[in-house]
Amino acid sequence: MAHRDADRVLDYPMSAPAALDAPTEWAELRRNRPVARVRLPSGDEAALLTRYEDVKQVLADPRFGRHLDAPDAARVTANESGGVFGGALGGPMSAETHRQWRRMVGTWFTAKRMTALRPGIEAMAERLIDEMVASGAPADLKAALGFPLPVWVICDILGVPESDREKFSHWSDTLLSLTRYTQAEIDVAQAEFRAYMSEHIAATRDDPGDDLIGELISAAGAGHVMSDEVLLSTAQGLLVAGHETTANMIGKMVGMLLADRRRWEALLADRSLVRTAVEEALRTDADAGFGIPRHITEDTEVGDTVIPRGTTVVCSLAAANRDGSAFADADEMDLGRTPNAHLAFGAGAHACLGQSLARTELRAVLDVLLRRLPGLELAVPVRELERVDGLVVGGLRALPVRW
């Protein structure tokens, strides 16, 4: 029986008993099948990693990238999602060019700049909460606050008008599709986004501002190469990595804190817990989405298993973040947990460049909500919350609240 279980192919992503719960299989997989065979939405097979140390090892290994266009790589979906899991940024890119690009973009996402963005983010949150309160309770916090806020921030960072944020919301949703949109719809969204951003990049070259695109163009003038294609990929990466993920995380974070209202009361009593509470929400997020795929280009030992070359592995960050060998009481939400070396933003050379921005947005939203709506509570039983299906990024369909 054990042998047959080891060979059993599981459908991936996995379902969970309730919207905020972890799939029941994770604990058994970490214990007995840390390298498990799974079937992706495309029908292709891959290997799923669920242990903290294994996931960290593969993500930190510079030999393995997201080159899922390799002939022997598994397809994530039958409709490849707009290049979300595609090859190197902006086409073929050497390791040195990639490092240079990360340095340049990373320089923009400094703690100092994020601190400077914080008042504007809080002002956006205040405005959206004003509109939500004016419309009356109950309200969907995800639709009213979680979804619009990050796209406003990204439009601001890219230097595009606030009036175009609805377009960016649609493009983000479509480009992150696993099964929700057809290939034709994904292709249209990709073409529209590229046409819009190509025009914006051309205008910015003529008159660089202090937004991200303008600064990357200016930096290129100092001897760096920054082609239109790389600028387009940078903008798309920021949109797909920075909008839907943060929008969903705002809803999930507030949902987790309100699911046991003692958590919300603890934050009201001690606002200094906001920083560690955000980190713990990121760690305990059981619906972080698809995970990070990697293409194994040579036989590799992971734990006690040799993974053969040509295998596509999926690193489940959410499962790894609940590994009891890495975190005490791993399934419990400890708002004051420190240190908290979770893997929600990945690890290694490809770790999320926008993690400081995501943290800034989540902390700002939580601070504003605690100040403005201390009586906030779920408007439905927690078991009635529903997950979103068909997207790369996991989230709640809605977060009904009252105050």
Describe the overall structure.
This protein has a five-stranded mixed β-sheet. Strands 4-10-9 form a three-stranded antiparallel β-sheet. The chain has a two-stranded antiparallel ribbon with strand order 6-7. It has 403 residues and is α+β, with helices and mostly antiparallel strands. α7 packs across α8 and α9 (183-206) crosses α11 (228-242). It has a single domain, classed as Cytochrome p450, CATH 1.10.630. It has helices at residues 2-7, 25-32, 52-60, 95-108, 111-135, 141-146, 148-158, 165-175, 183-206, 212-220, 228-242, 244-259, 261-269, 274-284, 317-320, 355-372; strands spanning 10-11, 35-39, 45-49, 139-140, 292-295, 300-302, 305-307, 312-315, 377-378, 400-402. The model is unreliable at 81-91 (pLDDT under 50). Belongs to the cytochrome P450 family. It holds the Pfam family p450.
